Amino acid sequence: MPNFPHEEFADALAANAEYIKSFKYSELTGVAQQGLAIVTCMDSRINPLSVVGMRSGDAKILRNAGARVTEDVLRTLVLATYLLGVKRILIMPHTNCRMAMGEEADIHALIQQEHGVDTRSLEFRTVSDQTKALKIDVNRVRAYPLLNDGVVVGGAIYDVANGKITPVDC
Ligand SMILES: [Zn+2]
């Protein structure tokens, strides 16, 4: 029984039909041409490739709520550094991030209050001090023993108001 929700995705499918008319990336492989991986937030205001002047094929993009370094980010970075050409990793949270605007308990309480669902079995990994959290995350990657040798890791905060990334000493 066909069950793809065509109506809900009609705009995306129509746009894709246009996109493929001028598709120009068919020669690319999965190796990151610029050797870069960016770990950033799911925030819809961030276009990670554009932010650093890159395009399809150039970089690996890893995203989650708050740009946090989780087990799954580490798993992905290990694969990226051995198999997919990644030699530098930029951890890039952003200003005005919802994950840095409230305590873990407040977000659980908000969802409980508005939707009646108890989400406390999840850890959302909110941060109260974004710079401090970034330092912890950058150093977590730097200290991770399974990454390929010679990988360089940096942290920077992206400003959603003007598009600027500001490097942070970690
Ligand atoms: Zn965010």
From TrEMBL:
<protein>
    <submittedName>
        <fullName>Unannotated protein</fullName>
    </submittedName>
</protein>
<dbReference type="Pfam" id="PF00484">
    <property type="entry name" value="Pro_CA"/>
</dbReference>
<dbReference type="InterPro" id="IPR036874">
    <property type="entry name" value="Carbonic_anhydrase_sf"/>
</dbReference>
<dbReference type="GO" id="GO:0008270">
    <property type="term" value="F:zinc ion binding"/>
</dbReference>
<dbReference type="GO" id="GO:0004089">
    <property type="term" value="F:carbonate dehydratase activity"/>
</dbReference>
<comment type="similarity">
    <text>Belongs to the beta-class carbonic anhydrase family.</text>
</comment>
<dbReference type="InterPro" id="IPR001765">
    <property type="entry name" value="Carbonic_anhydrase"/>
</dbReference>
<keyword id="KW-0479">Metal-binding</keyword>
<keyword id="KW-0862">Zinc</keyword>
